[in-house]
Amino acid sequence: MRYLLTVLSVVVFLAACGDNTEENRQKENAALTISAAASMTDAMEELKNVYENEDNAELTLNFGSSGKLAQQIQQGAPADVFISANQNWMNRLENDDLILPATRKEITGNSIVLIANKDSTLDYDSIDTVEPNDVEQIAIGNPDSVPAGKYAQQTLKSLQLWDKLKNKMVLAKDVRQVLTYVETGNTDIGFVYKSDALTSDKIQVLTEADAATHDAIIYPTAVIADTNHKKKAKAFVEFLLTDEAQTIFKKYGFE
Predict the structure, then answer these.
(1) What angle do CA 90, 92, 97 make, to 5 degrees?
(2) Inside any domain, residue 178
């Protein structure tokens, strides 16, 4: 009887170890979910291909406004890495203990430009020369959740133009929707990142916002605190800081 009990114990132990090994293997092979600001769509698609080929990894990309993505994470949506288009939304997650602070890195930057449809006859040397009577509608990301919209709002307030133009604003869910509004002629002008403007041949860049008129445009990234793939997630964040990744960012207009 003792012999049988001993054998059964060993069998149960080995089975449990096998299950744990298989579970750990599945976790290691699972795809990383990267929640990234919509303005990074094109760059991240290329970075995904490079990283998967070089590191035998699998990435799932989730794009949206930084505010929307941060709120999803706050509500428990699965994510392993978060890339924000501003510091504020990352700060909120850090204050809520939802990221690993030691993994937080600043990976790139951007600038804000004023765009119009490629067929538009509007011509501005600088944003402070925009005349309210020249335009009927202006596309801008919702400043409450879209960093590009917040930066644009800061610029317009700095130039004493916000109050004159705010009734003409069409608020978009993210910066890519702003681009679409201008491409289709639904709005006369719009404010997007330089990196977004470079993705379209249906618009023209009228002028660029002076960096002194808005907060510095920095993209921070960090590993989500409750990820099951901390090692893999940290490795991806480090990859974003490599010369190879930085070259790709520059290719798409990031600074």
Answers:
(1) 95
(2) yes
Binding site, annotated residues for molybdate: 39, 66, 148, 175, 193
pLDDT digits (tens, 9 = 90+) for 121-180: 999 999 999 999 999 999 999 999 999 999 999 999 999 999 999 999 999 999 999 999
Residues 61 and 183 occupy one common structural domain: no
Tokens 């917040």, located at residue: 150
One domain, residues 41 and 95: yes
Q: Are residues 54 and 75 in the same domain?
A: yes
Range of the domain at 67: 31-109+217-251
Residues placed in the known binding site:
39, 66, 148, 175, 193
pLDDT tens digits, one per residue of 56-95: 889 999 999 999 999 999 999 999 999 999 999 999 999 9
